[in-house]
Design a protein that fits this description.
Helix content: over 70%
Structural class: mainly alpha
Number of strands: 0
Distance between the termini: 58 Å
Shape: flat
Oligomer: single chain
Largest sheet: none
Number of helices: 6
Amino acid sequence: MTDTLSKRRWMPVVLALSLALNLAVVAAVAGAAWRHKGGGGPTGGKGGGPIYLQALPPEARRAVRGEMRQQPRVKLDSAVMVTALRQEPFDPEAAGRALDAQRDSGLTRFAAGRAVLLDYISSMSAQDRAAYADRIEEIAQKRKDRKQRK
């Protein structure tokens, strides 16, 4: 009977330790999710992404990203690269053409995004542009500080 009593006295302690450990794990996961979802994430500010978009106010960032998403996407055919990789003898020119197509697609999207962002910046007042420049500097400094800590 004394064995049963001593086992019961340890049970609350074990359960409390287990609960504390579970809460610590949940807190760590929630903190990581919050950090990477826009609560001051690894890019040094809210929202993540390229510094020039990240420095925009949230409503402007959403508008610019929305316009950029409306740009047509070129679907790349990975089968061209796969075929080039499996070809014997290997043809570097065929693989190069597949890579060039991917580069060209990226440059087309970049040019569209550049135009949208420049249109938005052109519509800003001098005061708004100065504040935007300040936010870019702040984010760049945070990124630099983070790199130096590593």
